[in-house]
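Can you give me the bound-state structure? Components:
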Amino acid sequence: MRDRTDAVFSALADATRREVIRTLSQQGPSTATGLAANLPVTRQAVSKHLNALADAGLVTATRRGREKLYQLSPRPLTDAVSWMADLGARWDDRLAALRDHVTALARRRH
Amino acid sequence: MEDVIVEAIEREVTVPAPPDEVWPVVTDSRQVSAWFGADVQLDPRPGGRAVFRWPDGAERHAVVETVEPARRLAFRWLPFQRTAEGHTVTTPSTRVEIMLDAVPAGTRVRVVERRAFSLQARGRRRSGNELLAAARA
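Here's the bound-state model for the whole set.
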């Protein structure tokens, strides 16, 4: 899962891919052609980004005739977000302990 | 879907001592161990190694990257960790920056942890055990 989190953040580092995700979440399952119609990029570029998103597990593809239908797979995104939340919570705990430690040191000095 | 793309977390706390007194708190192994939640062995020099051992048996390694006394310490977590169960697993590589600023009440301690790499290596990937062996070499 941690490996997957890394792949998710890499996939999301690109603004167009984030736009692809947003569009997919708004219009539901779509083909590359359907997505390109709503994005300022070519169908080929959308296909490339969809492949990157699929590699990261963020979208899944099912065949529909000559094209593939892509849909969001939100679980990896949720995992990535909770990983960030855990990280923040750990630093909250550490910094609270650091403050207590320095406060105790300061009292001893004075 | 809201925009949930966060690649860094940032936290801060103000402590009642000047930066030159807080500096050993974030660089001296014994003192870091008092607040970090882990037993820490830290060599606070650029390129210095840091080992963090948690009470549950988990272990992570880091490399010190930036040392500006009484101002800034940065280290990079190596991209693997040993779990409490003794497995070695890969983990996102992040860089931690701890910054000290003098404020009227003492020192503002600011921590930023952000992903160190934006692209995942596509080539041969080393296993967690290989990475651990390399880190210990």
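A couple of observations. The first strand of chain A starts at residue 30 and ends at 31. The mean pLDDT of chain A is 88.
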